[in-house]
Structures are given as C-alpha cells and as structure tokens.
Amino acid sequence: MLDDTKRNVVNRSRSSWFSRLKRLTSKELRETLRDRRTIVTLILMPLLVYPILSLVFRTVLMSTLEETLGGNKPAVLNIAFSSNLSDPQTVPFVRMLASQIDQLDAQSRADQIPAGPAAPLEKDSATLDARSSDDATDAPSADPLGMAARRPRFASFATHRWFRPQEDQEGMSLSEVVLANDVDLGVGLVFPNPGETGKPVQVSLVRRNTTNGRNAADYFQEKLRLFNRAQLTDRLKREGLRTDDAIGLKEVMVAVDPDAPPSTSSFSLASLIPLVLVLMTVTGAVYPAIDLTAGERERGTLETLMAAPVPKVSILMAKFFAVWTVAIFTALLNMIGMAATVWTFQFEKILLGPGGFSLLVIVKIFGLLVLFSAFFSALMLAVTSFARSFKEAQAYLIPIILLSMGPGLMAMNPAMTLSGVYCVTPMVNVLLLGRDVINHDVQWVPALLAVSSTALYALLAIQFAANRFGGDDVLYASQGTLGELLSRPKKTQSHFSTAAAMFGLALLLPINLVAIGALGRMAKVLESQYATWALLMMSFTFLSFFCVPWLIALVRRVDLSSGFASRWPSLGFWGPAILLGLFMWPILASFVDQWYRVSELFIGADMAAARRDMLVELTQDQVVKFRQLPVAVVALAFSIVPAICEEWFFRGMIMQTLLKKGAAWKAILVSAALFGFFHTLSQSTLSMDRLLPTTLMGILLGYVCYRSNSIWPGAVLHMLHNGCLVFLGYFQPQLSQLSWFPAEGENVPATWLVPAVVVSIVAVGIISILKPGEKVVSVA
Amino acid sequence: MITAHELTKTFQVRDNHFVAVDHVSFEVQPGTVFGLLGPNGAGKTTTMRMILGLLPADQGYAEISGVRSDHDPDGVKRQVGFVSASAGVYQWLTAREMLEFFGDIYGLAPDQSNAQIDALARLLNFERILSSRCTTLSTGEKQRVNLARALMHDPPVMILDEPTLGLDVVGSQVIFDYIDLLKDRGKAIILCTHRLEQAQRICSEFGLLHQGKMVNNGSLAQLRDETGQQDLVSMFIELIRQSENQPENRGAARTVSGVAC
Q1: A448 lies in a domain?
Q2: Which domain covers residue B208, as residue numbers?
Q3: Cα distance from A552 to chain B (closest Cα, Å)?
Q4: Which pLDDT belongs to residue A205?
Q5: Is B56 an interface residue toward A (CB < 8 Å)?
Q6: What is the model's pLDDT at position A624?
Q7: Confidence (pLDDT) at A165
Q8: Which residue of A has its CA nearest to B155?
Q9: What does the mean pLDDT of chain A come to?
Q10: How far apart are CA A4 and CA B244, in angstroms?
Q11: Residues A274 and A247 in one domain
C-alpha cells in the first residue's frame, strides 16, 4: 500500500514536471511567435532569400558552373595500374578491361533511361599515359556527364585514363605511386601463376583520400561488379589469361598527400547546401534565444520569474524547447524554400548531379538539422544566459556565428572526410555528414559518432546554461566598461578580476599566432643561424607569457605573490615535484604511443602512421639543429624559460583567477585545457596530436600548484620534464651507443615505464597528503 | 511570520568591497505592514532580495513562517507575493494570459486561476484591459497587473518594493488602498516606498535604513521618541543631514548609491 502511494507520488510528480514544462514551453512559444521580428526571420527570410540568391546564382555563376560541371570539361578518372607481370602481358588485359568497363557503363546508362532512345554517347579514349605511349589504346568511353541518365553518382567521370608508373617508380608501392602521380585511383593487378588454374586475377584498389578518389573507387568497384556479373570469362580467356568467373576485390585507403592542393575537379556544390541550411537555421534561432534570456532581463520579467517557486532548470528547459521549436520551423521552411527554388530554377542537376533531390535525402538532412538546431539552440542559450541586455547578447552571438562560418567553410573542402577528430568536431561533423547524405556516401560508424557527439554537446550546453541562467551576477550586476577594465585601482588587488584575466588570454592568443608566424618566416631566413632563432623564440616566450601578464598586473595593481601564486612553497613540495619532473616523461611518451594506436581506430593505420612520421620528422629536424647549440642555450631556450613563463601565465594568472571564482577542479581543468590548446598552435595548422598529452601535463601541474599554493614546484617539474626530453634528443647519438638505451623509433621499454609509474604515483601521493601551502589572503 | 536576522551583504564594485546591508534584523507579524524606509542606496532592495532568496546573504538569514530562504528558497517563494519597481510584463501576452501563466506556476488549477483573475481585476479595477496585450498598457495598468500577479496564489506574505514608482496620485492611491486591505486580511507585508506620507498612514512599524544599517526600528511613536521628530519626512531629513555631516561617510554614501542595492 505504502509502495503504491509512493509510486503514485513519483508518477504524479513526473507528470506534473512534464506538464509544467509543456505549459512553460507553450507560454514561451506563444510569446515568441507573436513577435513579428520572429516571423521575419522564420517565414520571410526563407521565402525571399532563396529566390534572390538563385537569381544571382543563375545570372552570375551559371555559365561558369555549367562549364565546370556540365559538359565541356568532363571530369577525368585517372587510374594508375601496376601488375605482377610484364607490360606485354598486362597491357592487353588493361585495354580489354577499360573497354569492357566503358561498354558496361554505356549499357547501364542506356538501361536507366526509362523511355526513348539512349542518350548520345560522346566517344572518348581511355588511353595509357604518354609515359607508356606505345601501349596507348583507344577504347570507347562514357558520355560526358550523362545529365539525362539517372545514375546516382558515377556520372562525373567521362573518361578514364590509365597510367603506367614511370620506370623510376618501379619498386614503389601502389599507394606511393598514387600519391606520386596525382591520380585518383590505383589498380593493382595480381595475375595467378601459370600453374594456378581456376584462380581469379586479384584486383586491389587504392584510392586517394579525396572526394574524387572516393567517387573513383565507388565507380570502379561498381563496374567490376558488373564485369563479374556479366560473366566475361570467355572473353578474358580469348586474351589468353585465366580469370575464371571472378575478379577479387580489395580496397585500401591511402592517406592524401597533405601538401597537395585539393583537386578543383573534386569540389562539390553539395557541400554548400548543408552550410546554407545550417546558417539559415542558426539565423532563425538567434532572435528567440536572445529575447527569452537577455530580453527577459531587460524587460524586468526575469526577476519576477526567479521569484516564483519554479526550478531554474524547468524555466531554462522551456526556453530551450521554444528556441529549438523555432529553429526547427526555420529549418523546415528553409528546406521547403530551398527545395522549391532548386526545383523551380532546375538547379538540382547542377547542385546534386543527375540524381537530384530525393525525398529520403531531404528527410535525412532535415533530421540532421533537427539535431544541429538542438545543439545550436542550447549553445545560444548558454551564451545569452551571460548577457545582461539585448545588446550584450548580440555582441556575444555575432562572433559565435562568424566563427561557425569557419567550420562551415572547412567542411566544403573536398579533401575533408567525416573521419577521425572531425566526427566529434562540433558543426564540422554535421556539415560533413550532410554532404555525405547528399552524396549517398554515409559511413555508419562516423555518422553515429557525429550524431551522438552533437547530442552530447547539446546536453552539456543546456546543463551549462541552466547553471548560469538567472544567476544573481547576471540578474543584478551592472555592465562593466572598457575604462573600468583598464583603470588602475586605488588599492592593491589580491587577484586578477575575471575580465582582466580574460583580457590577458585574449591578448596572448593573437600575439602567439603572430609570433609563431614570424618565427616560422625567420626560420627560413636564419637557417644557418639557429642560435639566433632559438634566442628569438626564447625572447618571445618571455615577452608574451611573462611580460604581458606582468604588465596587466602592474596596471591592475595585482599583488604578484597572490595573483600569480609566486609565493615560496613549503619545503616538502620540492622533492615530489623534482621526482615527477624526472620520471613523468616515459609515461607521457608511452601515452603518446598509445594515443597513436587509438587514433588508428578512427583515422586508419596509414593516416596515423603518416601523422606520427611527420611529427617524428619535425622533431628530428629540430633536434639536429639544436645539437649545433651550446648546452646552456638549449637548456635556457627549451627548458628553463618556457617552464617558468608558462607556469607564470597558466598556473599563475589564469588558474589563480579561476580558483577565486569557483571549484578547484574546474580551475585546474580549464587552465590545463588552455595550456593544451596553446601548445597545439603552430605555423600552418593545429597540432591536435599535442592536445591530450599537454592537457594531462597541465592537470598534473595544476594539481601541484593547487596543493602547494605556489607556481614554483610546478615550474621545476615543468623545467625538468622539458629538460629530460630535450637532452634525450640532444645526446641521442651518444646515448644510442649504450646497449641499454632504446634504439631510435623503439617504444619506451617496460623496464623504464614501470619504475616511472611507481615513482610518479608515490610523488603525487606525497603531494596529496602534504599540508597545503599558505592559503590566499585577500589584500583588498 | 517574517524574520530577518543579522542579514549582511557585501558587493564588490570595481575594485572595492561595499557593505550594502550590515547586520540588519527585524520581524514582521501577520496583519502588519512593515515600512522598510531609507534613501536611495540604503540597502532596502538588497534586504528584500535576501529575504526572498534571490540573493544569498553573506551572513545572517531570513525566515518566513519558519522556512529559511537559504535552506528552502522555493518554500519561501511559495509563501510570498513579490512586486518590485522594475518588474516588467510579458508584452506579447494579454494581461489574462500573463496572470494565467503565473497562476499555473504557483500550482493553481485553471478554473481557480480564472476566478482569481476576475476577482483581482474587479478589485484593482483593470477588468477592461484583461484581453489587451501588455505592451499596450499604461504604467499604472501594468503595475496593477503586476500587483495582481503577485497575489494570484493568495500568499500570506507580500514584499512590495516601490510598488507605486512612476504612478500618478490616483494610481498610487489605488495601490495603497489595496495594501491597507491586504493588511486587514492578515497578511504580513514589507513595503519599501519613498511616499512617506502614505507610508506613515498605513505602516504599523518602521525600519529606517541608512548606508546598509538599521538606524531606527519600531512603531511611529517609538521613532518619534528616538528621533525627536514628529513625522517621517522630518526624521529622514535629519537622518541624511547627520550622515552627510560625518566626513568619513561622504564618499562611501555616494559610492554605495551607485550600487544596485
């Protein structure tokens, strides 16, 4: 009986929670949808924007696009082939294969045209490259683009051109041949030995990691399937080659050459569609997100709402559902507007190829937009929950929308595929998945990763927004001015204000980027003067990470001892910090090894190996250069100065400010993540490989600083850790002669790793039980 | 019914700390109106927000019918009707829709809610605007709708922060008459206002706040004895004059008045 009563109470409370949420949401929606400003973005924009854009598109770009995509310049599928037999034996087979593929291609097009005569086929030749010009063969080819045919996606290859690798490329693997010759697809032919009757010719495909490469592999696989199905064994037998009834297939992916510019022929306008839809969806959600948060505060209804006995999370959830609903409506209307415009102006073949739109694609894209709009609605609410006015909320959102253009434009790069870290990169994953959906090329594991990570980000953003929404600092605080940020207080401050710390962070990011760029340029100029370059790098580290925070502290009258935790620590912390500095490097080095193994699961063994090789090569290049320098300069430039300056900024300025504001674990994590992020900055790209190990190191350094209340034990740890790594490289030639030292390329041996782990655990244990350092004393 | 015990709140403004409310204590019994009075920046609004649980107190606590606002803020909010000078209205909703929404929040059934809306509209004389969107209402009408909003759940406690701000004489009179009525119905009321004559008329007890401190607390007779002044206006003028004559208070008084407290 009691259980029943309890159950009823629980059910009632759940039902009341949901019904209250429903009522709160309906009120928010009613208020939002009655506002004519919402109507403008919701209905008028999709109605007007697409037709106007289409007119411009048709007038200005059409001729160029038609030329590129439509007829005069049909895309060419470049195929390199290799074989285990000599040319006289292989070339006839290749010739026959090319011919058969073209015939099958033409046949399949004709079959797919429902009525009337087959589309006229423009004959072209599938030639062997001039490098083996004697073997050139004329074979019938596909039609230019097959716009009339309704083939899903293979129509973009009008011609296939076969290449024989050059003589100097003999001995290279097929992957290397593909990269070296800038071709889309490599076809490796392994003919059976003369005695092995009944065995098929093994065909392995190696494709470039580009859209063109992927399309080429799909195209070729499809044709080989048709080839097998057509039972062409007899014809092959006439050529004197035994293939029996099947040609084995094996596809291997090749890492794209990172320095190679993306092929223009592989650019797909399909990437534009998700980007436009996403941006339009975001546009629809902006106004309600601002109005329901900062607008409430400005109108004076937020305090009234906070004075009511409703959990903040219910209010926020209602607002989220209202914003999400508007965003979904916007997405839907945009899709309808876009589909209608594309249909009216007959753009579907230009944008999507002969397959055009299908209802399934539209439903899938809409599903993605529903998910994406949930994420972006939550993100916007999280951001606008900080704002105290409409104007402030706009100021926060505009950069976010502009920043979101970055991933959007990145995702248009055909070389980018939904794999690896891109599966979980916000916005990029949805855009890449959208492109794959349009291209009928969805890989399920990356797609699931993209969907689940986006849903997770949405939940995290809601949770964050619920914590921030209606907080008394937002509800009652007045807005600060720039003058206040730069003004000099009358009294000494114990810590940086959050605004001042953020200002420092905002200054350091561009300073770092510019300095990294400048150092990169100087590296070429000062190639023979590496000492000068190293000193420049050291000076830059000192100026940016030490002097900039110090100047801000000077202006803001921040006490250096408490603001940077530069006070002297208890003696007990030195020992464990020194031990960690000396013993952490094998653990982190081993972690990096493991990290590459894990990354193989996401990006493939080839790609992971390529990245690792690149990093090793870069590091070795650096090591070779700094071996020319005196030991003292190396120690100063790569160990001592970076350690002190980075601790001064990350564990000093940033972490101490965060510690004053919130929980220690948050302060440690955020400062560590920033530490990790700054280490990924490099001249040409983000070195994401460094993110996780450096962030983990940042967490350890943050913990040591938190326990000791001083940056100095961490600075010593940091210095010794850097020193160990640098000097292992510096003295590598001498060390490698020692029998017990691992050879180049070998992993850290377990006999080193186990003691390192034991010593590190003991050191962290000692730090955790030591009496914490002197607590921060408020100066003001 | 309402107990404020040693309530203290400090704000950091720019680089300085200001004690906005400094160990303020008082009690309000059912059927009484407690006039929490003081010049701008005295700490009245901050005190009310702490009582309601909208702002956490640095020291001390507030209690309503034995429920502490720091322990159970929702429990306190259920018992309080709150009207502030800055309270706005939902401009795209009608007055009735807005009141229905708050009735819903406070757990009223739809028929209960409608009956309450009609009764309050009759009493506060805004029946004719019930179907109008709030954006079209005048300041006085908005304030009456807000007062009705705070009374939707018929709370035993009312906290009214400048409920007549921006209203004309007639509009103010309607509000004050209604507060008088609420007092007669046994509600415990805290009233902040600068209309001292009206406060003197309807308040049973007074707390004079200045620079965050409770300077005087008691009935009008007790205040007269303590200050030697006959009415609240004279008491105020004297209070401010004395304060401004103290050199150490000049700067602080000005700075504190810039804080939202």
Answers
A1: no
A2: 1-79+158-163+188-261
A3: 15
A4: 80
A5: yes
A6: 78
A7: 62
A8: A308
A9: 74
A10: 67
A11: no
Q: Tokens 């009655």 correspond to what residue?
A: A34
Which of A218, A250, A266 terminates a domain? The answer is A266
Looking up residue B50, the CATH number of its domain turns out to be 3.40.50.300
Query: What are the tens digits of pLDDT across the range A658-677?
Result: 998 788 899 999 999 999 88
> How many angstroms separate the most distant Cα atoms in chain A?
97
Express each pLDDT in A162-184 by its tens digit.
666 665 566 667 777 777 766 77
Angstrom distance (rounded) from CA A305 to CA B146: 12
Interface pTM (ipTM) of the complex? 0.87
B chain contacts of residue A310, beta-carbon cutoff 8 Å: 74, 105
Is position B181 within any domain? no
Name the residue with higher pLDDT: A236 or B130: B130
C-alpha–C-alpha distance, residues B197 and A303, integer Å: 29
Spatial separation of the C-alpha atoms in residues A733 and A661, rounded to whole Å: 49
Model pLDDT for residues B101-125, shown as the tens digit of each residue = 999 888 888 899 999 999 999 988 8
Neighbours of A43 (CB within 10 A): 15
Residue A474: its pLDDT value, please? 57
pLDDT at A321: 92
Q: Distance between CA B170 and CA B141 in Å, rounded?
A: 12
Query: Scanning the structure block, which residue is given the tokens 């564990």?
Result: A651
Indicate if the pLDDT at residue B166 is higher than 80. no
Q: How far is CA A663 from CA A569, A647, A706, in A?
A: 21, 20, 11
For residue B158, give the chain A residue with the closest CA: A307
**Structural domain harbouring A687:** 480-769
pLDDT above 90 (res A493): no
Q: Are residues A225 and A323 in the same domain?
A: no
Return contacts of A62-67, CB within 8 angstroms, 24+ apart: A62/A350, A65/A269, A65/A350, A66/A350
Cβ-defined contact of A27 to B101 (cutoff 8 Å): yes
- Residue after which a domain boundary falls, among A232, A266, A300: A266
pLDDT interval class at B130 (50, 70, 90): very high
Residues of A in contact with B50 (CB under 8 A): none
Residues A466, A510 within the same domain: no
Location of structure tokens 């854009």: A53
Look up residue A225 and give its two tokens: 């399937």
How many domains are contained in chain B?
1
A280 and A344 belong to one structural domain = yes
Tell me whether residue A506 is exposed, middle or buried, using C-beta atoms within 10 angstroms of its C-beta: 0 to 12, 13 to 18, 19 or more: exposed
Would B74 be classed as within a structural domain? yes
Residue A720 has pLDDT above 90, yes or no: yes
Angle at A509 between CA A458 and CA A408, to 5 degrees: 45
Q: How far apart are CA A517 and CA A539, in angstroms?
A: 15
